[in-house]
Amino acid sequence: MKKWWNWILGIALFCLLFIAIPLTFSGDEKEKLKPMFDNYIQKFNKTYKDNPEEYEARFKYFVASVREIELLNSESRGPEQHRARYGLTKLSDMSKAEYRDVHLSDEKPHKRKHRQNKNYNKKKNNTSNVFDIDDAENDNSSGNSPHNNIYIIIRKKRATLPLKVDWRDKGVVGPVRDQGLCGACWAFSTVGVMESMAAMSTGKLQPLSVQEAIDCAGLGNSGCEGGDICLLLDWLMMTDTPVLADKEYPLKLRDGVCRANTTATGVRVDSFTCNDFVDTEDKILEMIATHGPVTVAVNALTWQNYLGGVIQYHCR
Ligand SMILES: *[C@@H]1O[C@H](CO)[C@@H](O)[C@H](O)[C@H]1NC(C)=O
Ligand SMILES: *[C@@H]1O[C@H](CO)[C@@H](O)[C@H](O)[C@H]1NC(C)=O
Ligand SMILES: *[C@@H]1O[C@H](CO)[C@@H](O)[C@H](O)[C@H]1NC(C)=O
Ligand SMILES: *[C@@H]1O[C@H](CO)[C@@H](O)[C@H](O)[C@H]1NC(C)=O
Ligand SMILES: *[C@@H]1O[C@H](CO)[C@@H](O)[C@H](O)[C@H]1NC(C)=O
Q1: Domain 20-103 has CATH 2.60.40
Q2: Could you tell me which residue ranges the Cathepsin propeptide inhibitor domain spans (predicted)?
Q3: For residue 149, which ligand has an atom nearest its CA?
């Protein structure tokens, strides 16, 4: 047993040495990445090829990305076919600061406290959509929240979770969308989950208008300059605004005049719950398995060069 263990340890150390080599680039090795960078410029239609200053700056960030890609791939965990994969993306030539400022600043951090334990349900006498996973282990069948107009149903037992749930296979998740330079991740993710919830109850997956959320949502949400998942849900429910079909209110990726129509047909929010799940991520797992897709706000600093697969390491 012990021998076996030492052997494994030996291999692990050997691998570590091996992995460590490409992570420290000497000037020479850096130069060797130039052809790769030129290829990258061509593949992603970058425009700075003839601008020596930007070329050199971008090259520096590109090298940092190549390093990070190797590191993250080497640390990726899980079954081969599912594990997270990292590689060059159109964002690989950005500095971390630039990436953060341009693509990760959508969430309004000062609204975070809003996310604590919110459970809302409009139809107070209809419990079919109500859940409260924080209390899932309690044995009580129902209870009232401290706010007397919010009714919470507490599930009796923690469900036995299936080994695999992929809502995409069930045809209730739309395609990935590109937010471009519009900081509206909060609207994309929330409207995306509304599409899924609507598809699960109607059997028809229909793209809904993210632009409507960008243009209209109040309560401190500010379109392409950022917003908050919970505040958007708050606003949709308080104003009873239906989110229209995407084709009726198409995506422009810039702030525009609100064209919401409260009498039109669309998808309305009847209930939602907003929680902080840091360190209790298994509850998200349960929610996804038993209820459906969820919208999350995460630290995506390591996603700059993410290609696909399930991230099971370096999550935060
Ligand atoms: C680059 O431009 C070409 C021609 O305009 C286009 O076919 C290709 O899809 C573009 N590639 C990317 C990554 O945008
Ligand atoms: C409760 O449900 C009934 C129909 O089952 C409905 O008529 C009534 O308005 C509902 N009450 C509330 C407070 O939502
Ligand atoms: C409760 O909501 C579900 C789904 O939205 C609906 O099918 C059901 O008819 C509702 N029940 C009542 C009593 O309103
Ligand atoms: C159920 O709720 C009652 C009060 O509503 C409380 O006294 C009791 O401790 C609860 N039981 C459990 C298992 O939490
Ligand atoms: C709002 O929707 C209703 C119902 O579909 C429609 O009759 C009305 O013309 C719409 N209003 C606007 C301003 O588009």
Answers
A1: no
A2: 37-99
A3: 2
